[in-house]
Amino acid sequence: MYKVIEKMNEISILMHLLSRKKNLYQIGATKEEILEILNVKSRNNSIYFQNLINGLSNYLIPLGLQIKFNSLNSHWYINYDSEVTELISANPFEGRPSLAATLLCTLTSCLRNSGASSIQEIKKLRSKKEVIDDLKELEKKGYLVINKTANQVQLTPLIGYKLDLHKLLVKLSLKLKE
Question: What is the CATH number of domain 89-177?
């Protein structure tokens, strides 16, 4: 009986950590935070963590939930998995392809430059005279932060929650091979 109660407490703690909203740009928790709160200090803590995430993931699948990893800020989080959610996350810009193209160029430029990019480089990559309106709209949506004094743009972790970066990068690399 004690083992069942212990497991349920572990699951409730993990559910809380993976679904909490830290701030405007972050949800979930890092592996280190989870292990610390669960008081796991063994040498095999990575194996324990993987088993914990896999076990919870299998438990959540029938509910339409999945555990995902945001590689931009190393946070694990719970996501609702449905075809509608997948379609929205594939293009969250509701018929505004200009925003999607600017975000893709910003993402590419920021990845190339270790996290931040100049607005000038985004303009050049985008092949467009003016991108500042798109960048301001993306900032308003929470995807990036514009540093006007340095004339630079930096992505927020929110993009890792809204877009499936792994799928995006795989599709881009497949397009480049064609």
Answer: 1.10.10.10
**Domain 2-81 top-level CATH class:** mainly alpha
pLDDT digits (tens, 9 = 90+) for 22-37: 888 888 999 999 998 8
| 115-to-76, 111, 134, 178 alpha-carbon distances in Å | 20, 6, 19, 28
Closest CA to 11 of 42, 63, 62, 55: 55
Q: Which residues contact 18 (CB under 8 A, 6 or more apart)?
A: 28, 29, 56, 67, 76, 77, 78
For tokens 């292990």, name the residue.
35
Per-domain boundaries in the chain: 2-81, 89-177
pTM greater than 0.90 (yes/no): no
DSSP H stretches of helix in the chain: 2-19, 31-37, 45-60, 83-90, 97-112, 119-126, 132-140, 158-162, 165-177
